[in-house]
Amino acid sequence: MTVLDLNCDVAEGFGTWRLADDDALLTVVTGANIACGFHAGDPSAMRRACLTAVRHGVAIGAHVGYRDLAGFGRRFLDVDPAELTDDVLYQLGALSALASAVGGRIGYVKPHGALYAAIGSHEGQARAVVSAVLQFDPSLPVLGMPGSRWLALAASAGLPTVPEAFADRAYTPDGRLLPRRLPGAVLTDPAVVASRVVRLATAGEVEATDGTVLPVAARSVCVHGDTPGAVGLARAARAALVGAGVSLRSFV
To answer: Which pTM was predicted?
Structure first.
């Protein structure tokens, strides 16, 4: 039986602003990428997400990002690698404290947004994030795009690596995510997402924007919390995967 993790971004509001229905999402997914306060997420939202994840047996992931609340962490920042290491360590420490307070723990690390994209090829920043995870907990699994520099460096350093795919994002022919500013970059049709995740899980492939079929060996698949209709998309993905005989569970 094929086994797959289904992850989603949560706690991505701030103060009175709430982005998604985290409580509903955490009844569907197996992994929660919890914002750590730099791109989004205030302490109360982080703690609530940790508590809800613990109650539902959902793995807690640290969704670390650039220090960029205004840009939601989706703008590349030319951060000095040593500073980036400290920024990531700071975020891991904050989430760890809140998770521990409700009986949970950080189970994995998944960078967010522009940082996730940058460390696919940016050597200095990829090494900086690897260094932060190693200093925090060298046993923590890390998520990333297959073939990324980030996963290669993490594996070389001895970190467990988990390649992931995206249910609600379009792919370019070279295997990258289509930039969000372009039409069709975000997929919002539950039927399309359901078909896509089943193909990913059972055939190990995804179709790019030009029809190219890309091999994708993923152990986890992501639905973004800020995608319109995220709860419905996550539910559609879960139902389709279970219907196809895929076992959904976290890798931690």
So the answer is: 0.96
Q: For tokens 């307070």, name the residue.
A: 101
Output the CA–CA distances (angstroms, integers) from residue 130 to 48, 133, 139, 150, in the order listed: 27, 5, 12, 7
Q: DSSP alpha helices (H): ranges in the chain?
A: 22-25, 43-56, 81-101, 113-118, 123-136, 149-156, 190-203, 230-243
| 3-state DSSP assignment of residue 60 | strand
**What confidence score (pLDDT) does residue 17 get?**
84
Which residues have C-beta within 8 Å of that of residue 186, sequence separation ≥ 6?
168, 169, 170, 180, 224, 227, 228
Residue 94 CB partners (closer than 8 Å, separation 6+): 36, 37, 43, 46
Token duo for residue 245: 């005989």
Average pLDDT score over residue span 170-197: 95
- Contact by Cβ (8 Å): 249, 201: no
Stretch 178-196: mean pLDDT: 95
26 and 51 Cβ atoms separated by less than 8 Å: no
Which residue is it, tokens 């030009």? 210
What phi, psi does 115 have (nearest 5°)?
Answer: -65, -45
